[in-house]
Design a protein that fits this description.
The protein has 102 residues and is mainly alpha-helical. It has 3 helices and no strands.
Length: 102
Amino acid sequence: MTDTAEFEISVRDDATQADRENAERSVAALVARSVSAVAQERAAEADLAELTDPLRRPFMKLIQEAPPSPETLEKLRTHQLMQAYKMDALWSCPQKTGHAQV
């Protein structure tokens, strides 16, 4: 999806042509970096969804069968359930083969 938007860069009246061109290049570079960052974030979110959806389905079934209290759901919404450093520790745990994942 490529959205285009038009915008105008305002520069001082006494700015040289070189200053104007530099400002335009600078803004274009900032926009390009932002577009790239958003694309990377969306790709990361899609990858995470692909990994977590199979894990989420059994939990959703349990919740639908016996819904937790509203207070419990609110606590879950406001807490980070996984810390990165704890997830990293899982990689160093021995696998079923008896080898450590490196």
